[in-house]
């Protein structure tokens, strides 16, 4: 195993025009599972490919296990990679696919068999070793790709959206399996996804990327609960964080002509702020709450997601599964002070609270 250090990586596409990665710095600890998440085109796959040696940075360095590998080809970096497509050989049986990297390294036959068997047991593929990929389901093929990556005992495991070709149920099932497998191996892992549910559930830490930069890095729930800028709150979460404009006056928050308690604003100058709050943190039903009109009610089984109109703002509110509301109904909303997050309306960056 080995840690990965990325220092000031810059990659421009095409040459001299747009920066796919813009001075990216990142430290991945030995044995850590780190997820790179962000919208399409944010630079996460380019960053992963530069770590893998499949792309050459314009500037900056990549260090693995304390060794500068920036100029080394992919085969000399001690990495394994799982791609978005299965990339398994249709003419080879499952066992041969899993052991392909060992074959290329000319591993002795007895060791080859032992390591392939161990990887197959880990991925629940023992009964399929003599089948061809065409005889497998999509989820089984993806497990073959993961088994082929881990069988070589690489110091670092890289994964580029490996679950995106699976349907929703298979993706959820395999996500749980993958987390158990990686935890058992203890291998340093970098995982790229645009799916924020995957990012939240898999990573020890999450790095949120935008426009070639890492805009926030931390434990999944810390990033979710305290976004450092509006973009992070808007990207992470289903539904995303609600935002509305309010005014701070005499240590209180004034919204739509109503004054809300917010003791932690004590000492703030009077100013306009952007307020963020998660749908599940808005409370419904208190008599002293602010009145909103229900526009849409969406039962999801475990909850009811409401779209409500509140003055000029539209909010998402998540309630319990027993809650009943119809379009046109008026409900009362309460915003717990501890759940509010504040941002500068001009920069969209989080404001420090006291």
Topology:
Blueprint: E1 4-13, E2 18-28, E3 33-37, H1 44-52, E4 59-64, E5 67-68, E6 79-82, H2 94-98, H3 100-104, H4 109-122, H5 138-150, E7 156-160, H6 168-185, E8 188-193, H7 196-202, E9 205-210, E10 213-218, H8 220-225, H9 230-235, E11 242-249, E12 252-255, E13 258-261, E14 271-277, E15 283-284, E16 290-299, E17 304-310, E18 313-319, E19 330-334, E20 341-343
Parallel strand pairs: 3-8, 3-9, 6-7, 7-8
Antiparallel strand pairs: 1-2, 1-4, 4-5, 9-10, 11-12, 11-14, 12-13, 14-20, 15-19, 16-17, 16-19, 17-18
Helix pairs in contact: 4-5
Commentary on this structure:
This protein has two domains: 4-228, Rossmann fold, CATH 3.40.50.300; 242-343, Nucleic acid-binding proteins (OB fold (Dihydrolipoamide Acetyltransferase, E2P)), CATH 2.40.50.140. It contains nine helices and 20 strands. The protein has helices at residues 44-52, 94-98, 100-104, 109-122, 138-150, 168-185, 196-202, 220-225, 230-235, and strands at 4-13, 18-28, 33-37, 59-64, 67-68, 79-82, 156-160, 188-193, 205-210, 213-218, 242-249, 252-255, 258-261, 271-277, 283-284, 290-299, 304-310, 313-319, 330-334, 341-343. β7, α6 (168-185) and β8 (188-193) form a beta-alpha-beta unit. α4 packs across α5. The longest helix has 18 residues, at 168-185. It is globular.
Q: Give the low-confidence spans.
A: none
Number of strands: 20
Beta strand %: 25-35%
Determine Rg (CA atoms, Å): 24 Å
Bulk shape: globular
What structural class should be given to the helix and strand makeup? alpha+beta
The run of helices and strands is EEEHEEEHHHHEHEHEEHHEEEEEEEEEE
Number of domains: 2
Biggest sheet details = 6 strands, mixed
Whole-Å distance between the termini? Answer: 42 Å
Which percent bin holds the helix content?
A: 10-25%
Output the CATH class name of the largest domain.
Answer: Alpha Beta
CATH superfamily assignment of the largest domain?
P-loop containing nucleotide triphosphate hydrolases
Annotated CATH architecture of the largest domain: 3-Layer(aba) Sandwich
Mean pLDDT: 88
Could you please say which CATH topology of the largest domain applies here? Rossmann fold
Kindly report the spatial arrangement of strands forming the biggest sheet. Answer: 6-7-8-3-9-10
Number of helices: 9
């Amino acid at each position: 195993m080995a840690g990965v250090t990325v220092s000031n990586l810059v990659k421009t596409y095409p040459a001299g025009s747009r920066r796919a990665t813009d001075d990216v710095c990142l430290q991945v600890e030995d044995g850590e599972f780190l997820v790179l998440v962000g919208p399409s085109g944010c630079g996460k796959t380019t960053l992963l490919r530069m770590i893998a040696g499949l792309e050459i940075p314009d500037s900056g360095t990549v260090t693995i296990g304390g060794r500068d590998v920036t100029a080394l080809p992919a085969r000399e970096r001690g990495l394994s990679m799982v791609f978005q497509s299965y990339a398994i050989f249709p003419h080879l049986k499952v066992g041969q696919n899993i052991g392909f990297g060992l074959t290329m390294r000319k591993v002795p036959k007895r060791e080859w068999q032992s390591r392939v068997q161990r990887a197959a047991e880990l991925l629940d593929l023992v009964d399929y070793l003599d089948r061809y990929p065409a005889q497998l389901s999509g989820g089984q093929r993806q497990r073959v790709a993961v088994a082929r990556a881990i069988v070589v005992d690489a110091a670092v495991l890289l994964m580029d959206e490996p679950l995106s070709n699976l349907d929703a149920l298979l993706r959820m099932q395999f996500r749980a399996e993958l987390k158990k497998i990686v935890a058992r191996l203890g291998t340093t892992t970098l995982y790229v996804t645009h799916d924020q549910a995957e990012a939240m559930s898999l990573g020890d830490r999450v790095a949120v990327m935008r426009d070639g930069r890492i805009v926030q890095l931390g434990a999944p729930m810390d990033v979710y609960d305290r976004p450092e800028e509006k973009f992070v709150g808007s990207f992470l979460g289903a539904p995303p964080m609600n935002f509305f404009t309010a005014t701070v006056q005499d240590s209180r928050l004034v919204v739509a002509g109503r004054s809300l308690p917010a003791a932690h604003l004590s000492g703030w100058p009077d100013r306009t702020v952007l307020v963020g709050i998660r749908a599940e943190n808005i409370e419904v039903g208190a008599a002293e709450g602010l009145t909103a009109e229900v526009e849409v009610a969406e039962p999801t089984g475990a909850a009811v997601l409401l779209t409500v109109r509140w003055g000029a703002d539209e909010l998402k509110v998540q309630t319990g599964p027993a809650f009943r509301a119809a379009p046109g109904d008026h409900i009362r909303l309460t915003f717990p002070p501890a759940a509010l997050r504040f941002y500068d309306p001009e920069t969209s960056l989080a404001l420090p609270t006291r």
